[in-house]
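forwarding from the other thread:

> can someone predict this with uridine-diphosphate-N-acetylglucosamine?

sure thing
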Amino acid sequence: MDKLIINGGNRLSGTVPISGAKNSALTLLPCALLTEEPLTLRNLPRLADIDGFQHLMNQFGVSTGIQGNRPEDFGRVMTLEASRITSNVAPYDLVRRMRASILVLGPLLARTGEATVSLPGGCAIGNRPIDLHLKALEAFGAEIEMAAGYVKAVAPGGVLPGGNFDFPVVSVGATENALMAAVLAKGTCRLGGAAREPEIVDLCNLLAAMGARIEGIGSSELTIHGVKRLHGATYSVMPDRIEAGSYACAAAITGGEVLLEGAKAGDMGATLHALRNMGVTVSEEPGGVRVAADGALKPVNLTTAPYPGLATDMQAQLMSLLTRAEGASVLTETIFENRYMHVPELTRMGADISVSGRTAVVRGPARLTGAAVMATDLRASMSLIIAALAAAGTSEVRRIYHLDRGYERLEEKLQVVGADITRVGDE
Ligand code: UD1
């Protein structure tokens, strides 16, 4: 398996192009199931998870074609056509490798009146149930059955009648599944307490471009008036706010200055607020967002929360940056109960972090030193890279298949702004 070798200490400077958002792409792709006409998605990031999702779509009889596949291009264009759906079963082998597969449940049910999806297995960042996905679909009139590790959802008479559902906790995935199921309902579906992450807005905008009737886009109260059919569309995936935030942390920890090209400050409010409070200069420019760090970093207290709060997907990267701040910072993770797996690895690099339940106290400034490290999830892996960029000496980051799932051409983007990072095959 490949690993990344990083010699820390270089100041990052220049421009990092921001790719299309992984978390948005993975909810836009299943929308192809909702229409027999072609759906063309632009600015799709080149990531292992996108390839995996394409494979899953092929399984249902969806044809897929890719343009812009030259190695030197960032992003790709994919056209998906579900003129006929030949299977409405998502098998265990595909779902187990990619949690986002659960997002086919809603659209398959809406289009064919029935869907069978393997239950996603355990996950490194804590127990991740799907009960709210199922409850929302039930509220819209689906009948749900569980057997042999699969969930089967059926719309009696082939079409969901509609209904109301109030989320007891904010769930991004369940909001997405419910939206995709609702657009083809016979009547009206109402969601209260819905997630309003920018990726949900991206999903609503695509569905609207396909002919869906959705009120309240961007708010937590969504009303979806079902339509008989949706049509094809061409749509560009939003820029990845988490990738942009990750490179902002990378630049800041090296005392550098980078332009996050194409990033949208409006989607990154809580992250940019945290960076500013740490003493990082953040400016919005026509081409993107510029971050510059040239003095001591200040400690801050941060709590993850559903949007517009601080994204749980930024917690690990900000923690790495805070190891270099002058004083104690307190981080509280409210979304997942087990999302501090990067802490022991950061500690091995010299960080002073103590964890108690959902709270982590980071005492800085730590003198980070290079080490061989590995992480068990995507954002944790990125946090190790950020620490390695500022560490004295050489670090080896292993198990980088996580990074390939979520960061398009990571080492190239970092090399261009001056990082000493190389990928080598493991013997
Ligand atoms: C979550 C994050 C999202 C992040 C993604 C990957 C939030 C609100 N969601 O999305 O920002 O990009 O992880 O790291 O920040 N839950 C249930 N039952 C369900 C579904 C969820 O109890 O059926 C709970 C979860 O255990 C969790 C919370 O709701 O505590 C939010 O989960 P959810 O938003 O659904 O997770 P993802 O969609 O994976």
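The radius of gyration is 21 Å. thats all i got for now
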